[in-house]
Amino acid sequence: MAEIVGIGANVFDTVYSIPTYPKEDTKMRASACKIAGGGPVATGLTAAQKLGAQTAYIGVLSDDNGGRFLKEDFEKYGVNTDFTEIKSGYRSFASVLWLCADSATRTCVFDKGNLPPLVLNEAQNQAIKAAKILMVDGNEMDAALEGAKTARENGTRVLYDCGGLYDGVEKLLALTDIMIPSLEFALAHTGCKTAEEAAKKLYEAYCPEVVVITQGKHGGIIYDGEKALSYPIYPADVVDSNGSGDVFHGAFAAAILKGYDYLKCCHFSSAVSALKCMGVGARESVPDFETVKKYLKENGYEL
Question: What domains sit in the chain, N to C, each tagged with a CATH number?
Fold first, then answer.
């Protein structure tokens, strides 16, 4: 059975590499174009799988071109799709991304499609009970809440990639063991002015095991109820930053299974994210464990 299961977004991405952002109502030739799998939980599961964990996706996909690609992409990387339902006649969650060379940024336009919401069945609930970690991202909120309750009742830890301020988010936060919000989410949800203040407020309000606030180019902070510590960003010649946060969360889950303490998980995940940014494709650029270990050692950190 899978050690890590996930409920959340799985997105069919079309990725264009461009030299600079075009002016409105003009044409520009892209330097490259490719299709890829995206979405916070889906990409996180793929990252964890590539780092040595056994993972499975719990969700709904269409049988259109996007859905078929996403299922095959999971299978290519070894993510279990036994708990993925395939529905006919629906439009997949899809996005178009621009990767801009001169600013090293990405811009995304997305369509959530019209797939029906996930309703957990017995097999999917059993997969949650048997797992060590359930990853959620706030998409498929009703199923995520049900899954998180099942996880909590059966000793499965809930890792929440907090990125969107969705309806019901406070209910999911209350069921979270490992809370990893972006700085934007943390400040907006708490009304605080700094990451450290937000981490403490989130911890006091929802009582997780740990709060880790990711701060992009500035690394991040970790708070366990006693003290706030910072972790660094690791050096990278950035080619594609898209999905770096998703990869961080997947790497964090994989690191937990390796028995690392939470601060070490942060260093490990930051390194994985940096290495991923040096290649195009959120999933295909995720390194294996030995590459991460070597990279950290080269940058002065021993696992």
Answer: 4-19+33-298 (3.40.1190.20)
